[in-house]
Specification:
The complex is a heterodimer of chains A (about 210) and B (about 240). Chain A is mainly alpha-helical and about 210 residues long. Chain A is about 75% helix and about 0% strand. Chain A is built from 9 helices and no strands. Chain A starts with a helix and ends with a helix. Chain B is mainly alpha-helical. Chain B folds into 2 domains: about 150 residues, Rna Polymerase Sigma Factor, Chain: A (Orthogonal Bundle), CATH 1.10.1740; about 70 residues, Winged helix-like DNA-binding domain superfamily/Winged helix DNA-binding domain (Arc Repressor Mutant, subunit A, Orthogonal Bundle), CATH 1.10.10.10. Chain B is built from 11 helices and no strands. In chain B, helix 4 crosses helix 5 and helix 6 packs across helix 7. The chains are: A mainly alpha (about 210), B mainly alpha (about 240). Chains A and B meet through helix 1 and helix 2 of A and helix 5, helix 6 and helix 7 of B.
Chain lengths: ~210, ~240
Amino acid sequence: MTTNDLIARLTGELKPVSRTAVIQRVATGLGIGLAGSTVLMLALLGLRPDLSTAATTMPFWVKFAYTLALAIAGAWAVKRMAHPLGSIRVNLALMAGAIAVIGFLAFAQLAMTPRDQYMDMIRGQTIKVCAFNIVMLSLPLLIGALWVLRGLAPTRLTVAGTAAGLASGAISAFVYAFHCNESTMPFIAIWYTLGVLCTGLIGAIVGRFALRW
Amino acid sequence: MLGYSSHIRLFASHPDLVTRSRIGDDSWWNSTLAIDAPPAWLSSVTFPPILRIRNESEVHSVEARLKELMLASLAGDARSYGILLNDVARHLRHYFLRRLADAHKGDADDLVQETLMALHTRRATYESDRPFTAWLHAIARYKLIDHFRRNRIRATVPLDQVEDLFAADSTDTMADRMDVERLLQSAPEKTRDLIYRTRIEGQSIAEVAQSTGLSETSVKVSIHRGIKAIAAKLRGSAANDDK
């Protein structure tokens, strides 16, 4: 096919593009991923039985706010990396800020606790599964986020993959918070953050290859 | 990253520089270097390519034109889109040809078509508050790198030509030359020329004597005095620096 034929074909196919097309695609991909992740959580893990009482306690809302903040910064990072020349420095700074806040809360709570209870607070009852569950619940989201980016134009694939991974990990942590019954700040600060960062790492590694266009 | 891309960068990041050079002569160069009259050697100096902007107004109008066409295309205007793609195809061909080694120049047309396809399917990612050429360039660059990666093309240069890869750093020589020029000003006018021709251009005393009509002895004496004057000036300025 000559270039002129191609131009004629593309011109014939032209349709108006909405200004919000990129945001719509991000919302679609992450929305479907969120649905998948939620179904997975309900089927494999289940809501925490004491959800209605937990919803009146501070730790539940800290988890809620912390994971939601990371999720918003992450979803926005995906949107930004969808454009050529995209950069996620601002988003990483916001995430670092959220981590700093939860880290501060964790230290504050440890400071008010007798030394012999430190390990119990950090371990909780679900230390073995927390980060793993977050990574597992993030898989539908990661697929969705990578689908979003593949159809758009990321030019730095590893960074774009990192954004996809962090967003997926953060949204999945948000979903997981409705199952998890841990209530100490150090637990959330360490294991939730670890789950999100692991997913970010997976995204960085996979993105390099999966995002080629 | 020269040519097309550096123009774009320059346009994007230093509008000030572009406007100033648009005056079209060397005047702002000279004022920047703080020399009253441009010394003869200045004309033989090759400035780094990024500063050699001849068609910056052309780049400016290309950006404005393509951006307008792109915005119309995004709104669904097929006629603008046709013009845009034709223009872009021409720019891209040039872009890829310049960046492909001779053995791969044949791939330029494929790359142009791939980039046009990418522009088409990913046109939603263009943000109207950004320069269109920068967006297009990022996509073209991605396609070029992708092409290198897929075909495992590595830029290789025979070892004995490796020197060509490194640009010579002429900053020091330039600064030295400027120092010399300034120092020569402190010698008497007649001697200045003599010193310049023998010590810098490397002519022999006999040659200079012949062309100036002076005797060899008086040429030698003038040069000696001139250099003494310069040395005195140097000592003086060194003493000033010490204070």
